[in-house]
Design goal:
This protein has 13 helices and 35 strands. By secondary structure, the chain is of the alpha+beta class. It has three domains: 171 residues, Lipocalin (Beta Barrel), CATH 2.40.128; 65 residues; 264 residues, Alpha/Beta hydrolase fold, catalytic domain (Rossmann fold, 3-Layer(aba) Sandwich). The two termini are 44 Å apart.
Length: 671
């Protein structure tokens, strides 16, 4: 591969760099759906610990993704990892000379996946390749390896989520324990030499560990265990005695109880935690004194109106700043030099959010920049802190023209009981009033739906002339415990009312035409779509649901002929508290079942499901389709046989959204 593949010039580079003004008029032609829904051409890159080298995953049309290393001193690039039958999956620097990586396949749907990711290591010059762990029940993914199967770790060996110390050939990996049905039960951690493939045994654990945290030295220091009765315990391992000590506990699924959740260890060994700020509804970052068991009096970062979601940013010496999510991702820098660097980058890129990523032990001036906005997909660049210049690496969706994209705004409206509901409003570029609108309901439902960024589905709909409203209905996370807890046991009731109230708010504000509104969404959003058509038939003229839950009892009971990944533990401890109890809330489940109320749906419906979905099994779609089709001829069911709980394959994403486009145009017609 030539350096030109790494430093290729993008058509929009002049506008991306130096803050060039946007064109006055967007092109008239609609961008094709493939521009939104194909796989990103360039997904990520990682600086080595010194910052001298850049590991990149390179995509070549018609071929599998490969792992390359760029020498930033001369821009030389070398492919160091590739498979004949798979793509590069996760990759990470072990130290400045060695990398570890896994295998993946972006061209296979879930039904066709037959292997775990395996684990491999290689030097940055391509030498020293070694397979470390098996791929499921098959020892090798590629030919030519001299490693014997008996020397490999089992297929259930996985990389940890933290980068570790990066100062030796060793890393810690997880050995995961699964039930016969595939449910994750617990994990151990092993210290692994990535050159020899040998481990030094597992770290003793105080119980059935489900999560681990490394300290500032890269050693396992905290673990979260799964306990009986639906609770989790957090333990700390004393570095002197090696004994575990319990710090706190909390309910596994509701999050109730306990004083904090661990975030990370600082360079000096300080433990930083996430804790609810006294007198507030949201969580913030505090330091925690392990010896005394006390939290600091003052929060390190307090985000008004938002729960903390983010990470600490450190170099080899100190805590530099905190990355966090409010309406968008941003950084609070504690270090004056980093504040100044951020200001310089923002001056070069005034139209985007610019996130700076540093190597762990910088010896060069290179800093990674991830730049994005609501109308711009993410682009990766390198910033030279000595010269003050930016270099483009690549863009995820280079065919997207920001001049054709729509602005996104966080709004708030009042639900009928007075609760304030956040929502994301996207209006087509140059649009006026009383637009056709899609109410897009996020899945989960115990999740945050959106943020200020470029989202393919939202921008695709807006490019077709539709306003898009994304309510963060009660039960959504990230905006405080009041909003989250208000959604417990409210499926099809107050959660549904929040969505309808947001729709009526958009009409009252003049954004939406009351006669041209469609509701849609995946997973819980699919459930809310069907319940919306039932409860508010005057409000929604059609519905688009994919992967949607059609009956709560089906989540509990499953189906004899379809395997479900819904764990017994969640059914026992999570669902009764968050959704409802099958026996105590039986009447409520009947009243809020789209399956049992299918005959009430008279509007056109477009449904889509994955044939290999183990979360919302095909029983949901087949039973509901049969029930609704008996009284409603305007219902279409799409099944992508190879897909699971989402559309992994670009061809299916493109096909689905092209069908959505035609369906919406027919029923609420924007063009």
């Amino acid at each position: 591969m030539r350096p030109s593949l790494f430093l290729r010039v993008l058509a929009l580079a002049g506008a991306f760099l130096c803050g060039h003004a946007l064109a006055a008029d967007a092109a008239k032609a609609l961008p094709p759906s493939a521009d939104f829904f194909t796989n990103p051409e360039f997904s990520d890159a990682v600086l080595s610990p010194s910052g001298k080298y850049l590991a990149v995953r390179l995509a070549t049309k018609g071929k599998h993704d490969v792992l390359g290393v760029v020498d930033l001193a001369n821009d030389g690039i070398k492919v160091v990892g590739n498979f004949n039958d798979a793509d590069i999956g996760t990759y990470r620097w072990v130290n400045d000379n060695r990398l570890v990586f896994t295998a993946a396949d972006r061209d296979l749907g879930e039904a066709d996946m037959r292997y775990a990711p395996g684990l491999y290591a290689v030097n940055r010059d391509g030498t020293g390749f070694r397979q470390l762990a098996m791929r499921s029940w098959q020892p090798f993914l590629t030919s030519g390896s001299s490693t014997a199967a008996r020397d490999l770790l089992p297929w259930h060996t996985y990389l940890m989520g933290q980068r570790g110390a990066q100062d030796s050939d060793f890393i810690y990996v997880q050995d995961r324990n699964y039930s016969n049905t595939g449910e994750f039960l617990s994990s151990s951690v092993l210290r692994l030499n990535t050159v020899t493939g040998r481990t030094s045994g597992s770290v003793p654990r105080p119980g059935d560990s489900v999560a681990w945290m490394l300290d500032n030295e890269g050693e396992p220091r905290l673990t979260t265990t799964r306990e009986k009765g639906g609770s989790n315990n957090i333990y700390y391992r004393d570095p002197a005695t090696k004994d575990w000590r319990k710090l706190t506990d909390f309910e596994r699924y509701t999050g109730r109880g306990g004083g904090f959740r661990p975030l990370a260890f600082g360079n000096d060994g300080t433990l930083y935690v996430i804790h609810t700020t006294p007198g507030q509804d949201t969580t913030s970052v505090y330091s925690y004194d392990i010896a005394s068991g006390k939290l600091s009096d003052k929060a390190l970062v307090n985000l008004e109106g938002y729960d903390f979601n983010g990470q600490l940013i450190m170099d080899k010496d100190k805590l530099l700043g905190v990355r966090h999510l409010t309406d968008a991702w941003s950084t609070t820098w504690l270090d004056p030099a980093m504040q100044a660097m951020q200001a310089k980058v923002d001056q070069l890129l005034p139209n985007t959010v610019n996130l700076l990523s540093l190597p762990s032990r910088a010896e060069t001036p290179w800093v990674m920049v991830s730049a994005y906005a609501d109308i711009w997909p993410r682009r990766l660049m390198l910033y030279n802190s000595e010269t003050g210049k930016l270099r483009m690496i690549s863009a995820a969706y280079p065919n997207i023209d920001p001049n054709q994209m729509a602005r996104k705004e966080l709004v708030h409206y009042k639900a009928r009981d007075g609760l304030s509901i956040p929502a994301w409003l996207t209006l087509p570029k140059g649009a006026g009033k009383n637009l056709p609108m899609v109410v897009l309901v996020h899945g989960g439902p115990w999740a945050r739906g959106g943020s200020w960024e470029w989202v393919p589905a939202v921008q695709f709909l807006a490019s077709r002339g539709y306003a898009v409203l994304e309510p963060e209905y009660r039960g959504s996370t990230g905006y405080g415990s009041k909003l989250f807890r208000a959604g417990w046991k409210q499926w099809g009731m107050k959660m549904q009312d929040d969505i309808a109230d947001g729709t009526r708010w958009a009409i009252a504000q003049g954004y939406a035409d009351a006669q041209r509104i469609c509701i849609g969404g995946p997973n819980y959003g699919g459930y809310a779509t069907l319940m919306g058509l039932i409860k508010d038939p005057d409000l929604y003229k059609c519905g688009v649901e994919w992967l949607g839950i059609t009956d709560i009892n089906l989540l509990y009971d499953g189906s004899w002929n379809y395997r479900s990944d819904m764990s017994d533990d969640y059914k026992r401890y999570g669902m009764p508290a968050l959704i409802g109890d099958q026996e105590k809330d039986a009447e409520q489940f009947k009243a809020t079942s789209p399956l049992l109320r299918a005959a009430e749906i008279r509007q056109p419906v477009l449904m889509a499901y994955g044939g290999a979905d183990t979360r919302v099994t095909p029983a949901h779609s087949l039973k509901f389709y049969k029930a609704v089709k008996a009284t409603n001829p305007n219902v279409e069911l799409i099944e992508y046989e190879e897909e699971g709980h989402g559309w992994k394959l670009p061809k299916n994403r493109v096909d689905f959204w092209d069908r959505v486009d035609k369906f919406l145009d027919k029923n609420i017609g924007a063009h």
